[in-house]
Amino acid sequence: MCGIAGLIAAKVDLLDIPAVSKMGHALKHRGPDGTNFYNEKNVAFAHTRLSIIDIENGNQPLDDKTGAALIANGEIYNFIELRRDNPDLFFSTLSDCELPLKLYPRLGLDVAANLRGMYALAIHDRRHDTVILSRDPFGIKPLYYTESTTGLAFASEPQALIKSGFADARNLSKKSIYELLSLQFTTGRNTIYRDINRVLPGETIQVKKGEITCRKNIPAISDIELPTYSNEKEALLALNHALMDSVKVHQRSDVPYGIFLSGGVDSSAIISAMSELNQTPVKAFTACFSTGAQDEREQAKLITNKLGAEHIEISFDENDFISLLPTVAAALDDPVADYAALPTFKLGRKAGFEGIKVILSGEGGDEMLAGYGRYRTGTRPWWLGKPKIMRSRSILDQLEIFRETPDGWRDGISSTEEAIKLKSNLTPLQQLQMIDCCEWLPNDLLLKLDRCLMSNGVEGRTPFLDPMVSKIAFSIPDKFKIRGRMGKWLLRKWLHNRLPSYGAFQRKRGFTVPVGEWINSNGSRLGSLVAAQSGIAEICIPDHVKNIFLKTGKHQNHASWLLLFYALWHNIHVLKAPSDGNIFECLES
């Protein structure tokens, strides 16, 4: 895993090499094992490397010596199979990322069509004076760009574009601020920064002389008609084959790997597969809370004891919340107000300390196999009343804290909903799953995982978000995903067959962090500090903000968390306040 950045200048004399160098240095945490640069004509690249495969010879940029050079952030899991299927290609390294470089001359903009993995890559085609930027279909790996008269600059993180002077952090989109405070993430191509856009999941863009000339897209879930399974046994066999194969290829690594184990169905399924595929005990990291939250350490212990895995518990308490939140907000330069980022960051830090460079995670299991309760309410039959529209209300609805009505915060998610509804071959459940795959998954869950792990020099891998798994998941009839009030039925059945003592058919409890309790214990002080922040005061009524922090209840707790996170994020990323203190020190600076 790595950090990538570059500039495709409109003209050679506009190529700003020092600015590209600044981007490389800004991404050093993503690639602590080395930094390299590339410059040819009007194009310059920077690459920071976290060595995972072919540690000795896999340094980038990779150059085919005939007309193209590549930098990449990611892993191509099927590189062994694709090398075997293309015996006429000559490879000079064992790096998985050399594969798209060698396929590019024959495939061009379709170079990513057969890649199985997570990636954000850039290829400079010297023959045609073009650069292509490509991102994996699920958006597991991030990629951002900004356009100006100088040309097009790109990077793995917005903060690199800002620190190098290609974008201005003060130029925020108010509509995106309202979106963040309503959904806890922002959607689509636009980020919270007016100057910075995302390369969309599955998108490949071609750039010539600093201008985008072409766009192509590979969907995470294919539009073609998929086969269905007539009985549960067939579906189980198909899921077993796909999931075991996915976990197998996601373990391809020349460095130690482990897993984040919550004790829930998804991560338990992954560690079960890992334990079967590994001859040595798997290292499993679990976040533990002493109060308030649904603590799943006992369930995690049961699993690791049964499988013979090494279980490492990491406690997270109020002191961690107060001391770590500014650091986490600093890592989330593309803001995600998801409190699960807090334990995820500390887990990543512990994994790095233990010498683990690769972590497998259960992210994507709910989206692939229908685990969320909102899927059931969103697909209920007409005789039970009108199906509930997901995310129909802002989290801050009816609290009367904004200076003006936050219009337009749902435009992005609505646009995605309308586009997916046009896919007539999808069931209502599949439509809801696809909406999450397009927005919630890449712009919240995966972004959070990427930043919290890469800040600690650790790579995160997600076996549920694999083409083979997604193909099976979307070809399984809805009745094998949701049964009664229980989601992920087929995955639960798969896990029950392997670990009968686990209790796979217990109701989903969800992963929660007691941030509300921790905020409430400091409510008066935090409310006054948050209300006084310029980022909050320009959009909210300060006295109303203070009142939110003095109240208790699920809705008020969620609202106070969002406002606290945004206040810290704005201080750190827009006002450039230091992030090395605790919550109170950062808000008082």
Task: Describe the structure using short key phrases.
six-stranded antiparallel beta sheet; Rossmann fold; 589 residues; Glutamine Phosphoribosylpyrophosphate, subunit 1, domain 1; alpha+beta
CATH homologous superfamily placement of the largest domain:
HUPs
Q: What do we call the CATH topology of the largest domain? A: Rossmann fold
CA-atom Rg in angstroms: 23 Å
Tell me the strand percentage band: 15-25%
**In DSSP terms, counting alpha (H) and pi (I) runs of 4 or more, how many helices?**
23
Classify the secondary structure makeup into a structural class.
alpha+beta
What about the largest sheet? 6 strands, antiparallel
Low-confidence parts: none
Task: Give the overall shape.
Answer: globular
Strand order within the widest sheet? Answer: 2-3-1-9-8-10
C-alpha end-to-end distance? 35 Å
Quantity of strands, as a count: 17
Highest CATH level, the class of the largest domain:
Alpha Beta
| Portion in helices | 25-40%
pLDDT averaged residue by residue: 92
Number of domains: 3
* CATH hierarchy: architecture of the largest domain: 3-Layer(aba) Sandwich
Q: What's the quick description here?
A:
By secondary structure, the chain is of the alpha+beta class. Helix content is 40%, strand content 16%. The protein has three domains: 2-217, 4-Layer Sandwich (Glutamine Phosphoribosylpyrophosphate, subunit 1, domain 1), CATH 3.60.20.10; 232-393 and 405-502, Rossmann fold (3-Layer(aba) Sandwich); 515-588, no CATH class.
